Amino acid sequence: MCKVNQSTVYRIRRGLEESGEVMQCITVVGRDGIEQPRRKSKTKPAPKPVVERDGPTTTPAGLRTALTT
């Protein structure tokens, strides 16, 4: 190993990638051998739509009186 700081390597590599001297890596292979995307997407999944139910939200009057008596 060269004993170089990781942030220094990142900064220099980013400059070389932007200038086209070094190819950009799209995926990285981890120690377990599984390919991962180099950059994770920052977009959040869309929220689930709220489903409104048809009909009244309260109990019918006849049922309400039957339950209270």
Kindly describe this structure.
This is Helix-turn-helix domain-containing protein. Residues 56-69 have a biased composition (Polar residues). It comes from Alienimonas chondri. Residues 34-69 are annotated as: Disordered. The chain is an alpha+beta fold. It has a domain at 1-39. The protein is 32% helix and 9% strand. The chain has two helices and two strands; from the N terminus they run αββα. It has helices at 6-19, 61-68, and strands at 27-29, 35-37. Strands 1-2 form a two-stranded antiparallel sheet. Strand 1 and strand 2 (35-37) form a beta hairpin. The mean pLDDT is 77.
Concise summary:
With 69 residues, the chain is an alpha+beta fold.
Strand order within the widest beta sheet: 1-2
What's the story with the biggest beta sheet? 2 strands, antiparallel
Q: What is the distance, rounded to the nearest whole angstrom, between the alpha carbons of the first and last residues?
A: 83 Å
Order of helices and strands: HEEH
Class by alpha and beta content:
alpha+beta
What's the average pLDDT? 77
- Strand share of the residues? 5-15%
Question: What proportion of the residues is helical, as a percent range?
Answer: 25-40%
User: What is the number of helical segments per DSSP (H or I, 4+ residues)?
Assistant: 2
Q: What is the CA-based Rg, rounded?
A: 29 Å
Which outline best applies? elongated
Spans with pLDDT under 50 lasting ≥5 residues?
A: none
The number of distinct β-strands equals: 2
Protein name: Helix-turn-helix domain-containing protein
Organism: Alienimonas chondri
